[in-house]
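Quick start: read one record
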Amino acid sequence: MSLTTTGTTTRAPRSPWTGSAGPDELARWKAAAQAAADELAADALERDRANQDPFREVDLLRRHGLVNLLVPREFGGEGAHWASALHVVRILAAADGSIAQLAAYHYINQGTIAFYAAPEQQADWFRRTAEGQWLWGDSVNPVDPTLELTPDGDGYRLNGLKRFSTGSSVGDVIIINAAITGGPDEGKILAFVLDRGREGLELLGDWDHLGQRLSASGSVRYTNVRVDPTDILGEVGEEPFSTLVTPGIQLAFGNFYLGVAQGALAKGREILLGRRNAWILSSAETYAQDPVFQRTVGEFASRIAAVEALADVLNRRYDEAIAKGADFTLEDRAELAVRIAELKVVSTEVGVEVANRIFEVTGSSSTSNQVGLDLFWRNIRTHSLHDPVDYKKIEVGASYLLGEVQPITLYT
């Protein structure tokens, strides 16, 4: 791929975020996230089993001020930075992966106001989302391109089915991407926002997977849905600043997987410390004093610490990239995307391994359904398949060996 723009977008984007999250800001939102996570952890297993749309959990996010975290203060929001939002995702994931996913996608979907909307339209979008405390779901799965957006007067009509629409069944609004079919703008991809109750929009509620059960990720069917000009955010093109959407969601995944690993290790530690005897062949008095188990826990803690250090660096770098606005270049994007791909690789592997092997530390009794230790593994095993991590390894390797840059897509 050559580092040139497509020419599809002529606006000069201005970022509503400047600078980066400082220590006081990070401390504030880490505390808010931890308070929310503590509430979620209290009945995470019971809620997972009930498998109901997480309206109550979304209200909890609102109550702790997390929904409007990224909305600039001048538009009625909290005025925080992306590094704070990414820490929120990480902390929530240690307690409830489903709600962490909802928060991650919400932040990126809400952030498309800055990425896709023209500067003169952003204030109205930000004010409305802040006033309504909207949770943003999405219906953009790019490997399921079954939507048809056809011109209809001054607007469009939308028809088709979109699977894996995270947050759709609880989102106040749903952001949708679709290519125009017919007319002078045929093939142009638009991003637009519909309220969940729009006529012709049908929530199928068919999300029935191993993990992430409360992520509200069912399919949505659109039957002759009216899309008005006021619903349209903008065009999805390759203007560099607008393409920060994908590195952003991939970075959120890295923080999410890290959080799951931290949560699984913390739960394993709690179980291990609660075991007052020791293995019959051990000379230690308790399992926690046994070097065999100490070694495993030490390995997990060390690898998690390394991933955490990388994530913290990249969270700050994403703030710095976002702040550039129109000055953010395709060269900047290529370098940032590779660094985030590196995080995606190691966070996936550490997260899956810790959530799996923690049972080696906690023993057969921890496989009881009443313990719920499997929740961490089920969640990360499900979500880590979102896009193949092997392709992230190839992305990193091709860059390292040949300086190659992957094509810009909603996965790269």
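Residues 291-324 form the longest helix (34 residues).
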